[in-house]
Amino acid sequence: MGPRPKEFVFSTIVVIFSTVLAFGLGEAFLRLKNANMKNYDIEMWRYAKTLKRASANTILGHEHIPSRSAKLQSIDIRINRDGLRGAEIRPKGVQGKRVLFLGSSITLGWGVDEANSLTEILNTKFKGNGQSISVLNGGIGNYNTVRYVERFLTKLTHLNPDVIVVQYFVNDAEVLELGGGNWFLANSQLAVTLWIAFNRVFNKTGDASLIDHYKKVYDKTSSGYRAMRTSLEKLSQYAEKKNIPIILAMTPDIHMLEKYPFRFIHDDIKKVSDETGFVYVDLYPSFSKIKSQDLWAMPGDPHPNKLGHKLMANTLYPIIKKALSQNNRK
Fold first, then answer.
1. Which of 6, 139, 277, 315 could potentially form a cystine with 103 if both were Cys, beta carbons 3.0 to 4.6 Å apart?
2. Predicted TM-score (pTM) of this structure
């Protein structure tokens, strides 16, 4: 004979209560453990919760919440009313010329104080030389080429930049799916931790498989590659009409610098850059003589640290300066 109805109901209640209690205790433990802001995955999750919102433009997927700030990975990140990292933008007549950076979390300066980020180092360099030039940070985490070009063309053209820098990363031709819709993943650190662990166990991505992945991404017939090319061509057409020079800064994956396997991506993007009329700059030589982990924002987070941002700024400064001097647009 099976359990009687009352016993079954009681057993079910006990199981549910025990499960909820265990989940609650696990959630509390993780939140306490991650309070030191050293868990990269959780900090990225908090970034999505505190500084991002769903965009009405489905191509973008998400965007920064204007006039919002948060401390993430022990770093203060402030977003101005235009959705850019940094201070509010003054009228152009006051600031003089503008340089706008487009890109993802590397451009944003994830894990780096604002003052030590690429764009702010460049601002300091220009001001130190008495030049009235403002460098604006348009980076948003989890953006690819399609997204940051679409964002510029639909939301940022009013900034009227004199030079645009596309900070291209090796994964910028990937197709990004729309996120959201899962309440547990959106609100629970335990759910996020379990989901990440599950994916790492069942979707192992070693160096060899990562190389294979990128070879598929950069196949000329892949949807992501074609979309990337189309977006850069759109940006090129806009810039040509407005007489805006565009610099494409090819940014390497710094967690594999010693035996760098993505040279083929750099070579491909140089051809794309040349065909679209951009000024191509390869940032790999800036990092090549330094050990990968000496450039990481923190252990487990291969975003460039302040040294990495300084090296990028030193490389880009004379190239941006030249582009500005050759551009007499008003």
1. 139
2. 0.88
